[in-house]
């Protein structure tokens, strides 16, 4: 007997065991998970320093003997401008230029005079200003040569032409006023003192500043409050000696210890070297022990050889801190001679006496090899 199974049952059984695999194309796509990236770190902005510079130049003694002012006479006064034309561009190129007016400019009205008691024409002041001088120092051994009248006349003229002066004054109030000049956001205070006045006693203590360490200390303290840097002119040393003496070096060290920044020396009538002097507080002072004669009637090559010294001040301000640095010292050797037209002129040493250029340069820079000698 055969067993007969209905076809429908077989079909149902086959369908029950079959599994359908989805095709690859039918699978659902899973979206990518997005993660936030940390921001790139921003480098801090470094503050930029603000740097400014100002140059200070100085010249030596203006001591007008009768030979000098007589040679500058005109029909209606005196004209010293031609004698300063050759070096005027150097002085005008400085931010600040100062001169030692050794003979008082009391003017012709009280009588001009020469050695040993000097009195000079007003016009030398005008010529110095036109040549580029911004301030004059007037404390020296000839300040009192012609008395109070010459001092008052001199100061009247300096005020009339707007030329700052320091070293001799007409009142205590005038003396107490510290002279300052500012260039390129750098301020300078100027002081001046002399070793003596040839035995002449001033009628008032303010008529001339003498070298007195207590006085200088008080003045320097006021100057430090009034300006960024302090410049002191000293009339000191021995005449015609090419090197500073022990007293000069001691005084310079004492002023450096007080914080004086620049010291300009006069009186020997010959050049003495330029030097750096370290102060007690780690400061460095620039010193020209003697700039010799700039314009005078003295004779002899050494007494007619002078120069223009210059130093640059670099001011650096970074955030709330400001520092000052003395840099790039320079020296222009000069020579005074009578011109072919008869007047006295100041010209570059290389032009007048080329044979003196090298020994003069070596002499002035012997204690400061980096001093740049300009031609």
From TrEMBL:
Q: Where is this region: Disordered?
A: 21-47
Q: Which SMART domains match?
A: PGA_cap
Where would one find the signal peptide in this protein?
1-18
PROSITE patterns, sorted: PROKAR_LIPOPROTEIN
Listed Pro residues bias regions? 38-47
State a single Pfam family of this protein: PGA_cap
Which residue ranges have biased composition labelled Low complexity?
27-36
Q: Which UniProt keywords are present, listed alphabetically?
A: Signal
Q: Which domain of life is it from?
A: Bacteria
Q: Which InterPro entries match?
A: Capsule_synth_CapA, CW_Biosynth-Accessory, Metallo-depent_PP-like
- The record places domain Capsule synthesis protein CapA at 55-298
The family annotation for this protein states: Belongs to the CapA family.
What protein does this entry describe?
CapA family protein
Origin species: Exiguobacterium alkaliphilum
Taxonomic path: Bacteria, Bacillati, Bacillota, Bacilli, Bacillales
């Amino acid at each position: 007997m055969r067993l007969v199974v209905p076809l429908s049952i077989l079909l149902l059984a086959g369908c029950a065991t079959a599994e359908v695999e989805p095709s690859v194309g039918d699978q659902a796509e899973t979206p990518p998970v997005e993660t936030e990236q940390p921001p790139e770190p921003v480098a801090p902005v470094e503050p930029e320093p603000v740097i400014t510079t100002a140059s200070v130049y100085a010249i030596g003694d203006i001591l007008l003997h009768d030979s000098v002012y007589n040679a500058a006479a005109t029909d209606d006064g005196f004209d010293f401008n031609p004698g300063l034309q050759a070096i005027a561009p150097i002085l005008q190129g400085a931010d600040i230029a100062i001169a030692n007016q050794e003979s008082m400019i009391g003017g012709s009205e009280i009588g001009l005079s020469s050695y040993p008691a000097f009195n000079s024409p007003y016009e030398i002041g005008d010529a110095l200003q036109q040549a580029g001088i911004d301030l004059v120092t007037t404390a020296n051994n000839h300040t009192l040569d012609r008395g109070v009248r010459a001092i008052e006349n001199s100061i009247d003229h300096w005020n009339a032409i707007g030329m700052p002066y320091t070293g001799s004054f007409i009142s205590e109030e005038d003396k107490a006023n510290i002279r300052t000049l500012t260039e390129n956001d750098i301020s300078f205070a100027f002081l001046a003192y002399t070793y003596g006045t040839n035995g002449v006693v001033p009628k008032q203590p303010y008529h001339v500043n003498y070298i007195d360490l207590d006085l200088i200390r008080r003045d320097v303290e006021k100057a430090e409050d009034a300006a960024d840097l302090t410049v002191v002119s000293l009339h000191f040393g021995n005449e015609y000696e090419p090197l500073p003496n022990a007293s000069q070096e001691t005084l310079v060290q004492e002023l450096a210890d007080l914080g004086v920044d620049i010291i300009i020396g006069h009186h020997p009538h010959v050049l003495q070297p330029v030097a750096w002097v370290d102060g007690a507080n780690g400061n460095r002072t620039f010193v020209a022990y003697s700039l010799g004669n700039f314009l005078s009637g003295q004779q002899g090559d050494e007494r007619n050889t002078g120069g223009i010294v210059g130093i640059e001040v670099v001011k650096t301000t970074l955030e709330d801190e400001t520092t000052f640095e003395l840099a790039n010292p320079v020296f222009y050797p000069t020579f005074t001679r009578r011109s072919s037209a008869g007047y006295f002129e100041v010209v570059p040493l290389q032009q007048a006496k080329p044979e003196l250029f090298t020994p003069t340069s070596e002499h002035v820079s012997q204690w400061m090899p980096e001093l740049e000698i300009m031609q």
